[in-house]
Amino acid sequence: MSWLWGIDLGGTKIEGAILDASMQPVLRERVDTGQDRGYGHILMQISELVAKMSEKSGIARPDRIGIGTPGRTEGPDGVVKNSNTVCLNGMPLLKDLREVLQMEVAIENDANCFALAESMMGAGRDEMLVPGAMAFGIILGTGVGGGIVSDGRIIRGAHGIAGEWGHNPIPGEYAPCYCGRQGCVETVISGPALEGFYASMSRRHLGLREIAAACGRDPIAKMTIDRLVSSFGKALGAVINILDPDVVIIGGGVGNIRQLYTAEARQSIAAHVFNHTFDIPVLPPLLGDSAGVFGAALLNGPATPETAMRD
Ligand SMILES: [Zn+2]
User: Fold this and answer.
1) DSSP labels for 189-220?
2) Same structural domain for residues 40 and 182?
3) 180 C-alpha vs ligand 1 centroid, how far in Å?
4) How many A from CA of 254 to the centre of ligand 1?
5) How many other CB atoms sit within 10 Å of the CB of residue 254?
6) Ligand 1 centre distance from Cα of residue 184 (Å)
């Protein structure tokens, strides 16, 4: 039996999972990240988690493990950049984890892990049964990111930025973005951007879920959600014209807004797609918080939807 081991390295917790050959989880385990205690402490926590997983499951330590984490790694040593767990930035995480764990390590960012798990085990599983099928997995939350999966593999691109649609421009939008550009997708349809839009018009601070729920009675709430739906259509239409994926899955907090899955939302995307029909499924995720750690485990093996778990 070959087991798939994965670890989701987050800012507050580190979660591990072991999947069997049919991608069924056989063990989940978590420890605190303790990022205030520094980089060395995080390496130790991961090492202890792996030992604990082996002990609890009775499964021998693996030869290789997948790690998912926000941010990017660069170069042969896997130096971290853009992580919100700031003590990881500038550190050779890949090299150090290989040394500490004494095994082969694959590291991917959390958006790519989400895309891999949801496409192969979750919402996109049926569409991915077709040979050569491609999925675009979106993180739409505090930030906006994404990952591309084709034939069970993450498409990373020449510089590791494939799928990063959050900093594409939306036509007609000019708000400055932290990245130095203007009118980025993230400045319009991220959760904070939409909540800020509502607050600037209404002088009231509401969370996006409350804004979405108030659409029937609050014209500014409706305007905010209309802005989400129309801008999402523009932004996703541009991506679809490049990738032409078989399925799109929307994760992150904004992905829970039901107005993104209506006929009106589909029309808003279709209006920007260079084709006379628009039949690509745009789906909410199925795996919840588990997508990150399952995606990390799938980094170890050629995932095929034929072997994916069935509920
Ligand atoms: Zn930007």
Assistant:
1) HSHHHHHHHHHHHHS----HHHHHHTTTT-HH
2) no
3) 6
4) 18
5) 25
6) 5
CA 133 / ligand 1 centre spacing (Å): 29
Angle at 182 between CA 197 and CA 281, to 5 degrees: 70
Query: Both 130 and 275 in a single domain?
Result: yes
The CA 129 to ligand 1 mean position distance, Å, reads: 34
The answer on 101 and 35 residing in a single domain is yes
Q: Do 36 and 55 fall within a single domain?
A: yes
pLDDT band per the 50, 70, 90 thresholds, residue 72: confident
Residues 55 and 189 in one domain: no
Torsion (CA) 228, 234, 236, 237 in degrees, nearest 10: 150
- Centre of ligand 1 to C-alpha 169, Å, is 8
What does the pLDDT read at residue 168?
97
Give per-residue pLDDT as tens, 84-96: 889 999 999 999 9
SS3 at position 33: coil
Within a domain: 119: no
Ligand 1 centroid to Cα of residue 191, in Å, is 15
CA dihedral 94, 156, 294, 306 (to 10 degrees): -130
138 and 104 in one domain? no
**Residue range(s) defining the domain that contains residue 194:** 126-285
Domain presence at residue 227: yes
The pTM is what? 0.92
Looking at the fold, whether 94 and 132 belong to one and the same domain comes out as no
279-295 pLDDT per residue, tens: 999 999 999 989 999 99
Specify if 295 maps to a domain.
yes
Where residue 18 sits, what CATH number does that domain have? 3.30.420.40
Q: Cα(225) to centroid of ligand 1, in Å? A: 21
* Distance in Å, CA 108 to ligand 1 centroid: 21
For residue 114, report the distance from its CA to the centre of ligand 1, in Å. 21
> For the chain, what percent of residues have pLDDT higher than 90?
86
Overall number of domains in the chain: 2
- Beta bridge mates, 105: 65
Q: How far is the CA of 261 from the centre of ligand 1 (A)?
A: 25
How many Å lie between the centroid of ligand 1 and the Cα of residue 174? Answer: 11
